[in-house]
Amino acid sequence: MGARRSAGVAPCTPAPNGCEPLPGAACPEPSPLEECAQLLSLDMLIPADKFRALRRAHADGRQAGMWDALIRAAAANAIAPISGFRVGAVGVGASGAVYAGVNMEFPGVPLSASVHAEQFLVVNALQHGETALRYIAVSAAPCGHCRQFMAELNEVEELRISFGGTPPLSLDQLLPHRFRPSDLLGSGPGLRPLLFGNLRAGGPGSSSDPAPDEALAAVDSSLDPGVQELTQAALAAAARCHAPYSLCRSGVALRLGAELAGPAVSGGYVESVAYNPSLGPLQCALVCMRLRGHADWSRIEEVVLVEGRQASVSQEAVTAATLRAIAPRARLDIVHLR
């Protein structure tokens, strides 16, 4: 992901009267919790070694307060202009790293375009190459939409979820009778398409579209070089997307304003067997933009959407409608896989 401001050292504690510390006074060392909370607030990620140190510091039964503080730090990044209800989620990956998730709402488009905190957390972990999630703590009870979305995670049997001070619960406890991939695809060998388990390799199935490198070779060389660069990023995102049910791969790449340095921001489609909890490629790209520390969507200047020609599931209309609402000056180019 793009570089963000370092969060390794907490600011000095002000003097009791609210004034700055005296010149030459040493800054107190931040506690492990203060350091990790600041990392979550700024980078939305706690490296595994930092989290191990935090767990050791809170091994005396103060776990509840620790998770509350981390959730509050994560929720500070939420974008909720419609509901005003900020949700924070914190998840521990199999690697030992910790990922933050927040809700994001977009005025002017249907509520179905919103990104839920648990979905944000999953995309965050995927972007960092995580292989599974072991524990998720949320500021509010996960809605049914998110329970279904999380039910398709790799090694979900090992996942535990808590919210509002509840003891850790399994997905079977939260959603005992759920719609599963096997309900749609059957239960034959290789028909267990799960996020994390398959997404990192580009998804478990292949559609009638060619491999992304073949499609890239077919991109019109007369396109503006900037569009070609975005197309490559969108193609790479489409290659990593998760679309085992529709087989309609798609990816989006964003170019931000020149003052916002960094490579193109991209995101790939993440499909749910229940369809409605799916995350479109633009939503995933906006999550990645937020992970870079940017939340002013009007800074988006150019967007490329890559998808199959005449695909049974097209992202074009919803991508265009969302951009008209949140980034009306952005140019949208559609590139079709061949």
Shape: globular
The low-pLDDT segments are 1-19, 199-217
Tally of strands: 9
Strand adjacency order, main sheet: 1-3-2-4-5
Rounded Rg: 21 Å
> How many individual helices?
11
Strand content: 5-15%
Q: What's the overall average pLDDT, rounded?
A: 85
Structural class by helix and strand composition: alpha+beta
- Major β-sheet, in short? 5 strands, mixed
The H/E string reads HEHHEEHEHEHHHHEEHEHE
Helix proportion range = 25-40%
> What is the terminal-to-terminal distance?
29 Å
Account of the 3D structure:
The protein has 338 residues and is of the alpha+beta class. It has 11 helices and 9 strands. Helix 1 (32-43) packs antiparallel against helix 2 (48-57), helix 1 (32-43) runs parallel beside helix 3 and helix 4 packs across helix 10. The two termini are 29 Å apart.
Write the layout of secondary structure elements.
Blueprint: H1 32-43, E1 45-46, H2 48-57, H3 63-75, E2 88-93, E3 98-102, H4 117-127, E4 133-138, H5 144-150, E5 160-163, H6 171-174, H7 181-185, H8 212-217, H9 225-239, E6 250-256, E7 265-268, H10 281-291, E8 300-308, H11 316-326, E9 331-337
Parallel strand pairs: 4-5, 8-9
Antiparallel strand pairs: 1-3, 2-3, 2-4, 6-7, 6-8
Helix pairs in contact: 1-2, 1-3, 4-10
Keywords:
338 residues; 9 strands; globular; disordered N terminus
Brief summary of the model shown:
The chain is 31% helix and 15% strand. It has 11 helices and 9 strands.
